[in-house]
Structure formats: C-alpha cells, structure tokens
Amino acid sequence: MDTSSASYQSPSGQPTQRPSNLPQSRFSESQNFAIDEENTSPPVEQNVSKLRPCDACRKRKSRCVVNDGASKCVLCDFHNQRCTYVEVPQSRKRKSVNLEEDVRSIKIRSPGVESQRRFSQHFLPPKNLDPPIDDYANLKGPSLLKKTLGLQRHRHGVYVGSSCEHEPDLIRLSSIAEGVFENGPRSFRHVNERDSFLMQPDEGTEHYEEELEDLDAIEAIVSPHGKALINLYFRIVHPSFPILHKKVYLEKYERTHREFSPAILAAVYILALNFWSYSSELANLQKPDVTALEELARKTLSYVINRPKISTVEAGLLLLQTPKSDSWSLTAQMVAVGQDLGLHLDCSTWKIPSWERGLRKRLAWALYMQDTWASLVHGRPSHISSSDWAVKKLTEKDFPENAADEDDEEGSTEVEKGRQLFCHMVSLAEILSGILQNLYSVRAEQQIQDVGNDATRFVLSKAKPLQIRLREWYADLPETLSMEDVKVRKLSSTGYLHLAYFASEITLHRRILRTLSCCNDPHLLDICRTAAKTRLISAMGFVNRLKPEQLQSFWYFASKFNFALIGIFQSLLCVTAPNKEEATFYLTRIDEYRWTLRVSSKSAEFLEQSMAMIDRSAKDLKTVCLGESRYTLREQDSGTAPSYEQSVAASYEDDYQPLQDTQPSGEALQTYFAQYPNENFTFQHGFSSNQDEEAPLWAWDENAYRDPDSNIMPENSHEMV
C-alpha cells in the first residue's frame, strides 16, 4: 500500500498533503502495531511555515504544537514567551568530503564509532532520520506506551525514598486527582497512596544532545539488517531471558530507531549477532562491526545512567550477558539504577499499565539473579538486602508471550520452556544467596574461624538445610526442563539452568572441604571427600552429555564461570588429597575435563574463557600435588566407638554416599537420633545451626547423592581412592 500521498489533519483541523519524507512502516501490516503518522512528522504552523517548529521549540528540540485558533504554540504559551519564526535553522557542519582526510581523521580518533557517526546520515534512509515521538501521551490510536512510568521518551522518573529531601506527606497533600503534581519542569507522579516518583526532563542532562547522533551511528553499523537482527534476538535470546517487552520494543522500532535509548538498541544487536548464522536471511552475508557496537553501547550506557529508565537496566543486564563482559562495578551500577526506578518494591498495586507491572517484576528478579551470581563469581558481598526487597514472586501472568507467539523457524527457542527456565533460575538464585550468606559472608567466615576445631561440624550443620532446599528445588523441576527434552531443530537453554544447579552444589561442598585442613579424623575426611568427589563426577557427566542444540543456545553470563568452577573444584580436591594416588586421580580428571571443554568450545566459544580460568587456578598443580614430601601417614583409629563428630559425619554420608553397598545402616542412624531427639547442634560459641524447623537435620535419604540427571550411578563413583 502506497502511503506517500496519504492525507492527514493539521493542528488547525484542515486536511494537508502528507509529506513524502515521513517514515514508512518497517514491519508487515499483519503485525497490527499502532502507527500514528502525525506524531512522526514535523509540527504545522498556520501562518509562517506549515511544517516548521518555532524558534524556541527548535532550540529545545521539542515538538511544536499550535492549538486551533491560538497565536502561540503550547510551550511558548506555557512559558509566557514570544512565539517567533524568524531564526534561520542552523545547518549541520559538513565533514570533509575528501576520503583521504576522513580516513586520516578516523585513524587519529576512535576507529569505528566516529566513522559511523560521520557517515550515518549517508547510509540510513531518510525515513529513519525523522524525529522521534516526544510524548507517548499524545499518540493517536492504541499504544502500549501510553501512561507508562519507566519508558517515557522525554523524561525520566526517580523513586522518592522515605528519608530523602522530598517529604512524602507533603507530596501527597499537593497531589491532584490524576495523581500528578506539577512543579515547574519537574512533577511528582503518585503510583499509589504510598509511593511517588519525581519526573524530570531528559533535556539538560549530560550528553543528552548527542543521543540522536549515537542512535544513528548504531543503526548505521547494522543497516540494513536492523529488523532481521531484532527478529533474531526475539527468536533465540528473549524466550530464555525475557527482560524486554517484545510488543513494546517492536512498536517503537516500527516508527523509528530513534525512539530507543542508544544502549538498549546496541545491546539487542550485540546479542543477536552471536546467532547470525541462525538467520536464513543473514547467514551468508558479512557481519557488522561488533567491536564498534560494543564501544558505542558501553559509552552510551554510561550516559543514560544520569537519566535512568527501565531501558537503562535492560541494556546493562543484556551487556552483562555478552561473552566479553564480566564487570562487578557495572552490576553495582545496575542495582543502584534499579533502586532509582523502584524495582525493589512491590508494584502490584501501582497505577501503571499491567504490562509494565509484569515487566518490572521480571526485570527486578533478573537484577536479583545478576547480583547473586556476580557475587559468587567475583567473591563480593551482595548489594541487595532481603530487608529492602519487596518484589512478589513471578507468576504466569507476568509473562505476556506464550506458545502461540513462538517462532517456527529453525534454531528458535521455545517460549513456554523459556518462561519456566527463567522462573526456576530465579528460585535457584534465592538458594544460592542463602549459601553465600550462611557460608561465605564476612560474618559466616568469622563464625567458622571462632569455632576452631569444630569448624567442620559447624559448616556441615549450616550446609544441611541448604542442601535440603537444593534437593527440593531439583525435585520440583518439570519434565520440560530435563536435559533430554530437546525438540528437533530447536535450540535449548536448559543447560545453563542445570549447570547453575551443579555450581550451587559445588559451592556448598567447596566450603566444607576448606574446613578439613584442621581435621585429624580420617573417617570424617573420607566421608566429606567422597561426597565431594561424587558431586564432581556427576557434574563432569553433565558436561559430557551436552548436545549441540544446547551448547549453541543462549547461556547465562555466569555459565563461563560455572564451567570453570567444576575444574577449580577438581584442583581443590587434588591439592588437598591425602595421598599421591588420589592426587593422580584428580589430575587425570582435570585433563579429561579440559579436553571436553576444548572440544565443546567449537560450539560455544565462551568455553575458551572457562579453560583460561582453570589454567590460571591450576598453574603448577602437577608439581605441587605429586611432590612426595606433601603426604604423611595418618594414624587410623580402630576398635573404638565413633565420636560425636564422626556420628554427625556419618549422617552426612547418608545423604551423599553414592553406592548402596557402602552406605551405613539407616537403622543404626535412626537408633542414634532416637537418643538425641531434641539435638539442635548448638556449639560452645553460641551458634545454632538448626535453621529448618520443619525438616530434621541430617535426615536419612539413601538416594540423595545419585546423579540428579540419571537413575544410573555416576561412572567411576564406586572408586574409593
């Protein structure tokens, strides 16, 4: 359908010929997204210039609207100033047309970014260079973006905290029926009786004037493949990491790429480029310059932090998923921005669109996951406190897409499976947070140090309720999230969920192993090391069973560390081995595991980073572990009753021993516990580990230490070295 000559209504109500340079639809009409042509065209003035803003609006880069019969535009009337059309629009300074001078200038300055900025106007079609919508409230027709709180185009909202300079009670007294109190260019928006946001204009913030140039530079890098890359992102990445709203994103892109924050536009393109070969439209074409995109993304993200919006957190989280990104400081910044946006609060009663409430909840939990896993990866304290976290659990209604929205093209990801994966990853992050707080926090480390020779027993009692939660989490996984559930010609990201589970288990055992250095009880050592060994073998078996459909899918940012953690755990078992034979066993396993990662890295390049981490941690490991002087004979106790510490360890063995014929008698344990029905493992230092009132500590479960992905015992798990 030719829309180049379509007519539209001017502000005066008279039909006017539609300018030929207005943007055409960038998606098929079948997608049924709202298109408001008037909002993408320049404003009309009655007397001086039909399609030209007044002098003041041009300086502000604001939309110039003249009401019917008015002599001034709305903004000039509001500011009580003259509305003139006398100034000549300043033309952009043209760059040198000499190619040699351009190339020389680009080499001197930043390669890639400046060149894309410079030539973006030449490479982008004129329809892509129209000004973006100034205020979504003025959109004609249906749109998801009307009344949005966190994705407004020209202003941003910051949550008003209870102890800040703005007194909440005074703000509420100043409110009007619509829930908005104007205060010059700023206003307060009330989302419920208790919570308010200070809305401020983007104009005047640092680097705001460069935003359109940055957007054009980003689009020029990928042009003319922007639409195809966005489709690729929503086919493969989005189902497993649903932190965007698909229809909102496509609605905005349909009008113009200039409606986005530069960082989120670049971040989507960067992640989509990882799956370039999975697009039949793109596979045989040359890929755009990813390095230039990454440079622009990082730079523009640092700019928009000064005017935070939901898209700021979205962009930060997506950039943190890229293989080269691993920034603890960026995670901290995103948590801070999320708090500015009120993502840590319960938004279920807020007066905002229902789709935005769901988006905020998904984004909040994605931020929680990022903070928790980054805390593990970097060995740092979490930024999120449970006392300041009020976000409700995710439900099905928080996810707008369903199986009907799934793409049938080869290499796509299942939408419904992605929703379940995301929710279970969130609940696993909550368990991991408990592991880090109870076993790795500064307070926990001090408690372990204070109990001295009782450290192993203390850590075992702390670990037990956490292990119960992990076991229950795994038991609750639906069949659709099993590693065997892979559809033909579909990518599956369930691998990163199962890997995260093994990483959580290993993190638990890693802390237990560290306490064994001061333990002189050989029976206790054997039990704890056998348990750790069996978990290690299960994790290695999982990695060996990964399929191409899983390796080539989207992997969560922590996966490269989680793969490395398996190798690091092997190194820990090796360096703490009580004899040379056991050390040799683990050295062999390390070599086998590195080979598996090397072969698999052909399908998942980020595994090369995992191997590099293992190599750094295992440097000179063979020389250290095989030195004869390291090993001393341990005296074996015989013919004596088990000590209290041994009894605790035996119950640990019940949960983790892999073979039926080597497990202690459950009846004997029941007899032991019958003697101490009220035992809560309280130590002389006053620490009580009875954290789970409902589940008894050290409960008997002979199958608890089987490979969670199989009913068959892990290979070589019977070897007692």
Automatic annotation (TrEMBL):
Highest taxon of source: Eukaryota
The record's SMART domains line, in alphabetical order, gives: Fungal_trans, GAL4
Q: Does Metal-binding show up as a keyword for this record?
A: yes
Q: Which GO terms describe its cellular component?
A: nucleus
Q: Which CDD domains match?
A: fungal_TF_MHR, GAL4
Signal peptide range: none
UniProt entry tagged with the keyword Metal-binding: yes
Molecular function (GO) terms for this protein are: DNA binding; DNA-binding transcription factor activity, RNA polymerase II-specific; zinc ion binding
Family annotation (SUPFAM superfamilies): Zn2/Cys6 DNA-binding domain (SSF57701)
Q: Which PANTHER family match?
A: GLUCOSE TRANSPORT TRANSCRIPTION REGULATOR RGT1-RELATED-RELATED, TRANSCRIPTIONAL ACTIVATOR PROTEIN DAL81
Record protein name field: Zn(2)-C6 fungal-type domain-containing protein
